[in-house]
Amino acid sequence: ADIPVITIDGPTASGKGTLADEVGKALGYGVLDSGALYRVAGLAARRAGVDLDDGDAVAALVPGLDLRFQDGHIFLGSEDVSARLRAEATGLLASQVAVHPQVRSALHQLQLSFRRLPGLVADGRDMGTALFPDAPLKIFLTASAATRAERRYKQLISKGIPANIEGLREDLEARDERDKNRATSPLAPAQDALLLDNSALGIEESVTQVLDWWQQRR
Ligand code: C5P
């Protein structure tokens, strides 16, 4: 528990991943993208033809996953699944399997194993509440739904992927509803979390804010 952790939780497309990467880089810390693990579980379940509503069956797949993390890419067996994991459709699969407590606890140990020296920046929905409750700095990152949909839209278009901004907003609001209303580890700020609304902030301003807080906290 002497290994420092900064947790960044918040809704879909609030910019957690980018912020976590930049803060990790600035401090020389490792980064845990916990959503990617739920995405892998959702993808593996769909490929195995497992019923996504069957928590036991989905959780049973987790120990057998041959996962490798390499240079920011994620491999499932010999396949680089990074691009597939980021697809909107995989995000929806992830939020479906993430409601099951069995699936969450199957991924628990794996997430804790990312806590290594010199430190960790962990992003997700329950990093400050469930995984790293002793983290000295917890951030709850938000942005308006319109801002989040627009960012996601630009991201997709810049990659040459066709997108519809209204559809994106509906998808992310549906995912947020499911994440907020599930019984186990619902999306909610930790009691001691600092709120950061980045609707009107650039990434550099957000990074500076987090680094300032980190200076004060540790
Ligand atoms: O953050 P990301 O969009 O990659 O997460 C995909 C989904 O995985 C979320 O919508 C949520 O349902 C689930 N998730 C979770 N707990 C986390 C991270 C992600 O339940 N710590």
From TrEMBL:
<feature type="domain" description="Cytidylate kinase">
    <location>
        <begin position="6"/>
        <end position="213"/>
    </location>
</feature>
<comment type="subunit">
    <text>Monomer.</text>
</comment>
<feature type="binding site">
    <location>
        <begin position="10"/>
        <end position="18"/>
    </location>
    <ligand>
        <name>ATP</name>
    </ligand>
</feature>
<comment type="similarity">
    <text>Belongs to the EPSP synthase family.</text>
</comment>
<comment type="similarity">
    <text>Belongs to the cytidylate kinase family. Type 1 subfamily.</text>
</comment>
<protein>
    <recommendedName>
        <fullName>Multifunctional fusion protein</fullName>
    </recommendedName>
</protein>
<comment type="function">
    <text>Catalyzes the transfer of the enolpyruvyl moiety of phosphoenolpyruvate (PEP) to the 5-hydroxyl of shikimate-3-phosphate (S3P) to produce enolpyruvyl shikimate-3-phosphate and inorganic phosphate.</text>
</comment>
